[in-house]
From TrEMBL:
Gene3D superfamilies: Galactose-binding domain-like
Extent of the signal sequence: 1-20
Protein name, entry field: DUF642 domain-containing protein
Localization: Secreted, Cell wall
Residue span(s) of domain DUF642: 24-185, 197-363
Amino acid sequence: MKRVSSLIVLLCAILHIASSLSDGLLPNGNFENGPKPSQLKGTKVTDPHAIPFWEISGFVEYIKSGQKQGDMVLVVPQGASAVRLGDEASIKTKISVTNGMFYSISFSATRTCAQEEKLNVSVTPNTEPKDFGVLPIQTVYSSDGWDSYSWGFLAQSNLIEIVIHNPGREKDPACGPLIDSVAIKALRKPTRQRGNMLKNGNFEEGPYIFPKTNWGVLIPPNIEDDHSPLPGWMIESIKAVKYIDSGHFGVPEGTRAVELVAGRESALAQIVKTIPGKTYDLIFSIGDAKNSCEGSMMVEASAGRGLIQVPYESKGAGGFKRAKLSFKAVSTRTRVRFLSTFYHMKSDNTGSLCGPVLDDVRLVSIRS
Ligand SMILES: *[C@@H]1O[C@H](CO)[C@@H](O)[C@H](O)[C@H]1NC(C)=O
């Protein structure tokens, strides 16, 4: 009997492993399977193993969509349930991955109190010191208060643990971000396509976007290229850029693009090998995401000592144009960089930030 039950446990473990290998939601990644009534005190989860596939620590609440907090109604975008992490609370889950491969985590979250809330995402095992992502949950980018966030990591084992932790120290334990869905995606090593010196220039490779959400996924600031959830690219400055899909946005080419949502505070960059003295063309598309982001936009592209400002008139209805920067390389490594000159807000009275879209970026050398 003992043998049989351990066999069943083993079988379940294998099935779990097999199912978590594919891209998408983690097992019970949207928290639809919740605690039993006996494992709840009000909304507070009292048993660390009450949420299937997850282990919790600290003040974690299990929130049903439509639940009230003060005069605010909490809305959950995917399914009916979410978890809220109080101060210093965390949730974690073990999943099977491929050792040595890069992955990105995507999760949907919203803050519930007035102050700035943060979430700390980390993975174990991890031999790199200080390798965690503290992501500000600002909800300034989407109309409905929810945003999705991404974070990239290198798997250092076939079995890893993902930890999401609220490092906040507020007085009210019932303050803290809500988390709704957690997904993972294996990232292919960025490659150069024929006729393009840039990696992932069309942004087709990137973090998981929840198919039923219409707000894309944010690529957090200060991201180095070796851990980027957007392979090949770095986010140089202090604010995020948004990764968008053609299912919900206007995308100039293919199915993915980047929306520069934070003005000069966020720049997208890639470093390429160049030959000093040689002339190169940087060709790219700029447009709008068909998301009521209207106005006179400007995208600034720079490479080496070359700089171009490309204006784009957005009616918020989609559309794009091609632009080109020719420059002479001054070094063996050239930094190609894009940013939006201005801030923009959606014309839907939500005050959410938006901006020009960048796609299909190519770098070619020109024979003299
Ligand atoms: C984030 O989490 C990691 C891993 O648990 C921890 O080592 C680190 O101190 C945390 N950082 C902050 C700012 O809370």
